[in-house]
Amino acid sequence: MKGALGARAMAKAMVAMLCFWRLGHGCTLDDTSSYHQLDSEVLRHRSNKALTWEEAAFLAVPSNASARASLKFITSKPHVAGTAGDLDMAQYVKESFEREGVEARLDPQKVLLTYPVSSALELHDNSGQLVAKASLAEDTLESDPTSHTWWRNHTFNGYSPSGDVLASIVYANFGLPEDFEALQAAGVNVNGSIVLMRYGKCFRGLKAMNAQKAGARAAIIYSDPEQDGYAKGSVYPYGPWRPKSSVQRGSIQFISLCAGDPTRAYFPHGMDVETLCGLSAKELIPQIPVLPISYGDALVFLESLGGKVAPNDFRGALNITYRFGPTKDQYKVRVKVENRFQSSPVWNVIGKIPGTLPMDLDQPVVLGNHRDAWVYGAADPNSGTAQLLEVVRGLGKLLREGWKPLRTIYLCSWSGEEYGLLGSTAWGEVQDDLLRRALAYVNVDTGVSGQHFRAAGTPSLAQLLAEVLGHVPHPDSGKPLSEHWGGKLFSLGSGSDYTIFIDHLGIPSLDIAFSPKDAQYGVYHSVYDSFTWMATEGDPNFTYHVAMAQVWGLIALRLSGSNVEAPLPLNLSIQAEAIAGYISRVKGNRSVPLDFTALEDASLAFKSAAARAMAEVHRLSRMGPQAPPEEVTALNERLGLLERSFLLPDGLPGRKWFRHCLQAPGLYTGYAPKTLPGIDEAMDAQKWDLAQAQIHAAASRIWAAASSLAPREAPPTVFTV
Ligand SMILES: *[C@@H]1O[C@H](CO)[C@@H](O)[C@H](O)[C@H]1NC(C)=O
Ligand SMILES: *[C@@H]1O[C@H](CO)[C@@H](O)[C@H](O)[C@H]1NC(C)=O
Ligand SMILES: *[C@@H]1O[C@H](CO)[C@@H](O)[C@H](O)[C@H]1NC(C)=O
Ligand SMILES: *[C@@H]1O[C@H](CO)[C@@H](O)[C@H](O)[C@H]1NC(C)=O
Ligand SMILES: *[C@@H]1O[C@H](CO)[C@@H](O)[C@H](O)[C@H]1NC(C)=O
Ligand SMILES: *[C@@H]1O[C@H](CO)[C@@H](O)[C@H](O)[C@H]1NC(C)=O
Ligand SMILES: *[C@@H]1O[C@H](CO)[C@@H](O)[C@H](O)[C@H]1NC(C)=O
Ligand SMILES: [Zn+2]
């Protein structure tokens, strides 16, 4: 690895890698993750803004029967990115858009993918005799008619290279740096071994990378029942949790260094991954074979381990004595992985509802959900796809009644997300001109995998979210979702398709989901994330599907506006509070050789610029349709483009593709996103010169944001409605 960060930084980089699904898709966000707590006053005033006729008409459209029917179709066959199933579902989504009068096109992007060919996992005794063989297959369930598929026998990790390794194994718990340190302290040799690790605590790419760095020749990752199996409750089909033969597939790309296709094959010439990310394709994916397995298969390999008894925090919920290894009695394990790397198109579907504002004043609103799945993906991601189609049905009804948005709405169904946010990143990089003026991006990935509403996003959108949630009841309690939510807005890191929009392009973003309270859902990335699971365990009445479609669509309606241009629904005072919070958090109470004055001055300047802008919002809002259009337009120019100011021209140290100075997936600590990441990470590495330089870099971006808010002459364009 190269770049401004040292080896230690890179070693810790993967600790911070978020899952591909920041919310409810595999990473448990604890309360120490970075978030902004919305003022109770703002939450209480959620219903200040009454529904317009369009909004009320929209809210009446999403239906549980319709969401159920589209989910049933989308999950009727496997649709892994780049396969025929993926193309079929792209066409289905495109036709569903067109049926509602929304123009839509397929947007193919050529990217690097991996498909499974074969694999084997065997235990050999000291004379080379085969003692046990893993099934590497997910059992067919009679109660789940889609569980019989070729893919159930082809469990794999995306971007794992092929390989055939015979060696002893050691057990490295979650594969965190401290787990490898514990092995080293216990005198267990990892170099040359196969490392067995369990899922949980951190993104699987981190596990692969840490194992590779420790000299492992191969890695195996299994799902311990403690994380999402019987320790949580009844297993599928008797409950929602992970059964014995179920395998968590998933990409092992090093996504927090640079998202998207590691080859950037879609750029015809000129731009390459090295230029864009500062790292080569080889540095973005592992170089050792990695195989995911079930706890049913893991058992015999864990039991084959000798060596010291592992400490408490290494123990999972299997009824065995967890040991460090190596394999006892000179037994050996063979891991064979054969994956095919292939450059193929993946198909985004882009729907468009043109706005009525002239093009040079348009500020497009982008809604997105990925469509590709590891097999059927009923929860991840197609609950979100069914919700997107409900949103489109609602907008279609409004279109037929004569409604037109002021601002263009893009409705995006991404592919290639599971491999590393491929489709959205490609579209964002290729369409950067179209997105230059985008107002916001609103993401739903796994729309429903539980009953708890969670949101991550840009603080300036928090108030809009609270207001919208005030109009949608929680499906169970019937209370407004705003109360249920409680105003905790997590920071965005990486992990789903919002990454290009917020982190690379500086577009305010939201990511919303219903997920289980303190865990990932049990059938995540397995063949059992199926329609039957959703209809029996996940959302049997499809009422959470409806609620999310209502929230998502209402956000889109309020951002896009209609009839007469009104001040944008962004609250920059909340953003100013959040920035002040980031600064006090990064400063902490440690005594460090750093001067934060520039940053604090910038924050104060931003706070007063935001207050002045919000006063203007208030004044013009009160005038309603009588507000002078050119004043509203000028204000909205400043509000809508503000977030771009936070982009660092050179990006973050060691990973230049990530350009936002306020947040990023953290490089050093935990899997929480980092706020003020350039400063925080340099401080962690005790690189004080770099930290001071990052303080000045962030301060200059915050100053730029403050001055971009100062009133200017109205743009010369003639305003027409
Ligand atoms: C829709 O939800 C209601 C409960 O609100 C339920 O009775 C009904 O069965 C659901 N319909 C479908 C198709 O899931
Ligand atoms: C799939 O795996 C099962 C073991 O669970 C095996 O019996 C079956 O033959 C395999 N099918 C194929 C097509 O490989
Ligand atoms: C593993 O061992 C080999 C040779 O024995 C050595 O060259 C290499 O540096 C070691 N790797 C690590 C990570 O210790
Ligand atoms: C755990 O394993 C031991 C030894 O094999 C066995 O005696 C015991 O009944 C098992 N306990 C459970 C809860 O399965
Ligand atoms: C589904 O809806 C029915 C009728 O409203 C209700 O009795 C049942 O509890 C609901 N089921 C779930 C899982 O919410
Ligand atoms: C913006 O949020 C602040 C809370 O931080 C609140 O006091 C203020 O009223 C909000 N402004 C508008 C225009 O809603
Ligand atoms: C300062 O930090 C330490 C540990 O980081 C913490 O225990 C202590 O409560 C903090 N003190 C204040 C005043 O915030
Ligand atoms: Zn997903």
Automatic annotation (TrEMBL):
A Pfam family the protein falls into: PA
InterPro entries reported in the protein's UniProt record: PA_dom_sf (IPR046450), PA_domain (IPR003137), Peptidase_M28 (IPR007484), Peptidase_M28B (IPR039373), TFR-like_dimer_dom (IPR007365), TFR-like_dimer_dom_sf (IPR036757)
Protein name: Glutamate carboxypeptidase
Residues annotated as domain PA: 169-248
Source taxon at top rank: Eukaryota
Any one GO MF annotation of this record: carboxypeptidase activity
Keywords, in A-Z order: Signal
Segments traversing the membrane: none
Signal peptide: 1-26
Sequence ranges assigned to domain Peptidase M28 in this UniProt record: 348-532
Similarity comment text for this entry: Belongs to the peptidase M28 family. M28B subfamily.
CDD domains: M28_PSMA_like, PA_GCPII_like
